[in-house]
Amino acid sequence: MLKKLFRLFSKKVLSSSDNYDLLRKEKIILKIKEITGQVPIKEEYFLKAFTHRSYLELAKENIKSNERLEFFGDSILGKITAEFLFHYFPDADEGFLTKTRAQIVNKNSLELIGFNLNLHDLIFINEKYLSKDKKKIGNIVADCLEALIGAVYLEFGEVTTKKFVDNFIIIPQIKNDDIKDDKNYKGKLLEFAHAMKLNQPTYTIVEQLGPQHNKIYKIRVDVEKDIFGIGTGPNKKTAEQEAAKHALDLINSLKPNDILN
């Protein structure tokens, strides 16, 4: 009976756009029901959440990518995470809360969660430019998860969104002790520079490779003449974090006098 009702719902609601194949649209609606316990009425929010900009070239009509929803979802995720941590760690100082929030919502964490939710199987992309190889679309999956958060908020409201973020993003990372390993290398490098009275780290794009929708960034960070690092990644933030990590690795290999001289 439930399957019959769902098929009727799909034919009535999901036929509103010819830009998406029906089977994947059905899977998206089932995924939303799985993670929220609710069936959405406004399908356009969720279709948009799963639409990468590379797919726009294939659309028969004018549709929008998930970039605006990603921006919105990122803000909602930050707010919910800050509120959760504020109450969960009542004695923690601002520094700990800031670092922990940054770690929970960073792209690497969201990428892993997105793959665990199998979002990569649902994303509309143009496979002429992008394959669904996990190594190549990690950043796209993370962006999709943020866009999905925005869509859930617009369709179901703050209570449902908070429950989704708590259960699928925040609590699993706390239970797995993921937050104990501080991966905010940029923050660590900045703190080191301040403590040693060195120049503030500066980040410079050395090279950009690939098409606009699938770029690889190569970034260099400089602190002092002999203290630097180079990192690469699918976005500037990831490349900067890797560059900062390499700079910290170099610092750890130096003697104190080598740093000050």
Which short descriptors sum up this protein?
mainly alpha, single chain, 11 helices, 3 strands
Furnish the topology, listing elements before pairings.
Layout: H1 2-13, H2 22-36, H3 43-49, H4 67-88, H5 94-105, H6 107-116, H7 138-156, H8 158-175, H9 185-195, E1 202-209, E2 216-224, E3 227-233, H10 236-253, H11 256-260
Antiparallel strand pairs: 1-2, 2-3
Helix pairs in contact: 3-7, 4-5, 4-7, 4-8, 6-7, 7-8, 9-10
Describe what this molecule looks like in 3D:
The protein has 261 residues and is mostly helical. The protein has a 3-stranded antiparallel beta sheet with strand order 1-2-3. It is globular, with a radius of gyration of 21 Å. The N terminus is likely disordered.
What summary fits the major beta sheet?
Answer: 3 strands, antiparallel
Radius of gyration: 21 Å
- Topology, number of strands: 3
Assess the beta-strand content as a share of residues.
Answer: 5-15%
Secondary structure: helix percent:
55-70%
Short description:
The protein is mainly α and 261 residues long. It has helices at residues 2-13, 22-36, 43-49, 67-88, 94-105, 107-116, 138-156, 158-175, 185-195, 236-253, 256-260, and strands at residues 202-209, 216-224, 227-233. A 3-stranded antiparallel beta sheet has the order 1-2-3.
